[in-house]
Design goal:
nickel, three-stranded mixed beta sheet, alpha+beta, HypA/HybF, hypothetical protein PF0899 fold, three-stranded antiparallel beta sheet, 113 residues
Length: 113
């Protein structure tokens, strides 16, 4: 379950930003998670709750905005939607796809005190 280590990394960022921006409590964390990022959302919610116990983010709400996967097809030159890595191009059937979106994991914004 790599989601736990992802949550630990998020907490580290929160702690660094709290020192830098002088806030003491995190109320909400909004993440953007790409459909191709390989993140299990239920595990992410669980891991976030566990990792944040007894920290500045204890009880914080995690909101996840999922971004669709996108790729550029080298076969037909089209930008296409993909749900999984290594899918074929839905337009021409080629497997020569270059992912151009939907593989990100980033903190979009925070609500803090």
């Amino acid at each position: 379950m790599h989601e736990m280590s992802l949550c630990e990394g998020i907490l580290q960022i929160l702690e660094e930003e709290a020192r830098r921006q002088m806030f003491s409590r995190v109320r909400t964390v909004r993440l953007e998670v790409g459909e191709l990022a390989g993140v299990e959302l239920d595990a992410m919610y669980f891991g976030f709750d566990v990792v944040c116990r007894d920290t500045l983010a204890d009880g914080a709400r995690l909101e996840i905005v999922q971004r669709p996967g996108q790729a550029f097809c080298l076969g037909c030159g089209e930008r296409v939607a993909v749900r999984r890595r290594f899918d074929a191009c839905p337009d021409c059937g080629s497997y020569q796809l270059q992912v151009i979106g939907g593989d990100e994991l980033r903190i979009k914004d925070l609500e803090v005190d």
